[in-house]
């Protein structure tokens, strides 16, 4: 037995190493040294070193790798979950790299790999390593490795030496105290006296907080609070309040918490000043940062490229820098007496109403800024969910019924399709003006979707890429959005003009021919008649019959000129232009609308515009596309909106009521199209149509991908 084990074990280890399984964890893909080296330097590829500081000091690390540990690894992952992540440790017998890679995969980073051989094999294979940047300053052979990247830029002023910042009072530089936060803060204050004056009066200053006053505030809050925060749930005893005060003071930032002085050349200048502020403030004010990123300013920050200065306001533009005070303090930049002037620094026409806009609103809570916003959020959520549930079920049932029909009656199906397509007799359904209007409406809608989706889904992995396609700044996206909106407004108002002109020409139809007087009955008949796009009782009967057909409980219904789902599409445009249009104008010209609207109206416009746009894009690219193009008897595309004509057999097949009504009234002959020129530009129309369909489906996929990404 011993002999067998002696001969077998080395072979097992050799085979295991050859297959790359030692150190591996099931479900975590491995990558070889050569494969990893090929990927390094490629865009969106990140290498993570999980070794300890001691190991990094003795062995070095792969150039440009990011040092992580069990506590901070998740915070150092990129936002883009499609990025390629490579983790490595010391060698194959270190499972920590595989464990963290597995955890990254669970969090959605599917392109995560573990380089099992680790830094030891990397070194022995002769590949490049770096050491110098992780040497501690007290052990550094070259102290210039810890160059002061801020003060070293001074040209005509006295540049501080190491001892000016790191030496205690007449005690020289000591390892134990040289880098303490308190000492650095004190030394900063000795040079930056004016800044210290502002900071000492700010909300971040230790001197701003009086322990006794704080204790009284906590006691008072405990007495009146029905749902005290966790820190305030301690018994009403002064020593507990004292603990809270101490904890609160210890968490207050000092100079070097916000200002990074000794940044290694690899990372120097990687973020702009505004981006650093957004990052640093967010480390302590996570909830505030989250609500800020829901605003246009915050989305501009979140979607900006590293090193660029976004053309939107960030934390210090509104709250100040070293002079940050509670908004209730009269000296605060956001106090009632100063708030308008702060807003005017970017919005010259801002007034009191404009300054009452709620920057950190939480619409999901009744006390998140305004109860009105909460109820608007509830209404919009119910509207979006309700529409998608109803028409989602409608689309699914219709699709299943058509597929079953095609499977059960293949011969009849093919014959019916052949007859409709071969029919040379065409009936005019849409005028040239309607086709032009639809083309520009669809084009502008795609432009609005392209520029709006990355703003709506700003935290999605694909949003930044779309913004980069538009120049990398959110203001470029808004420019495209505004141009597209102007085109859509032009189409909408041209249609309103058309309606007014046509009804003026037909004004005599609502008059009694004998008396010449306008009759309400005739107005209602014109408004809700079969040629009108306004819904009527027949639509309810058609819908009921259609659902019965879905379930095989009745014959397929015959429709009139306009079906109930077409009327819904049409009226949805009017609803959308009213809701999205007005809310969009408020967001486009907030200072003007704040002349007669309260500040929270801008928040309401943001919420309504965002949710209604989500409803519109989702409905058009999923429901409307199916109803018009993707149902089994229309697939892959119905060209009627490009040609304006439809075969007589198709009208008989689906719009029998309209066909019979036209025959009885003698109007059918007038609608026959005997000189259609569609054949001459059919290829162009189909090409444009397929491009639009492809873009719409791509946008729909991105929306669905975002929801799945957030769920899992």
From TrEMBL:
Pfam families named among the record's database cross-references: Rhodanese
Keyword annotations of the record: Membrane, Signal, Transmembrane, Transmembrane helix
Residues passing through the membrane, by range: 374-398, 436-453, 480-502, 570-593, 613-630, 683-705
Sequence ranges assigned to domain Rhodanese in this UniProt record: 41-131
Stored SUPFAM superfamilies: Multiheme cytochromes, Rhodanese/Cell cycle control phosphatase
One function term, GO molecular function aspect: oxidoreductase activity
Annotated protein name in UniProt: Rhodanese domain-containing protein
The species this protein was found in: Helicobacter brantae
